[in-house]
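Exam revision sheet. Question 4 asks you to relate a sequence to its structure. Input first:
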Amino acid sequence: MRLVIVTGLSGAGKSTALKMLEDARYFCVDNLPIPLVSKFVSLMAGMQGEDVQNAAIGIDARSGRSLRELEQVLDQLSESGYEFEILFLDAEDRVLVKRYKESRRSHPLSMYGRVDEGIRQEREKMHFLKERADYIIDTTHLLARELKKEVNRIFVDNGKFGNMVISVLSFGFKYGIPDDADLVFDVRFLPNPYYIDELRPHTGMDDDVYGYVMDSPAAGEFADKLTDMIRFLIPNYVKEGKTSLVIAIGCTGGRHRSVTQTSHTVLMF
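Answer key, structure tokens:
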């Protein structure tokens, strides 16, 4: 039997992940009281080979004070020979706040206070679980279908887990630098298709603009150096626990040069 403990921050996608595991024929229980976790695991182990093959337990901040007991329960399960995996769902604070505002639900730890204060308290309470997690999925930039693909790859297809979501985007400096950008690159030094009448209406997604920009020796050299640097940075970021990386490439208007370089960078990976 494969046993998965699904946990993480409220609003990061725990309930969604549980539903996905349920669709994959896992026996799922959400918000199980901590004192019953050991009994549930032993019961599921006794049913192995019958109707239930795999199981998942959803645990979050709603467990309240008994959450403190979970670490001891997990140690006891390990000592008793039970194998389990921990999936931790996380997201950036600003995204969690936005999701709560859109859902019009109150955070379980905020009571009548601010959502961001509830998130802060929850991060403190859940920190020990994140440290013990086998898999950490940052859903900040993930769509539901992308989360499903990742969950299926790990827990259904037994695929290799990639603990980083990388987003490459283009932008125009005249509109401002994206707030969530981790790395920002300025490609306004490249030849500008805007000054070519027949190219101006097109974008970097069009072959004529793409060819015009990439025909510049500087464009090719920049792309090679950028690719080399990103490949160096990714494993080092992963070692430090970073789970998402947003690379922003900008030009003046965000239509020609930046789009071309963004497209080229995506193809390189």
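Marking note for examiners. The two ends are 36 Å apart (CA to CA).
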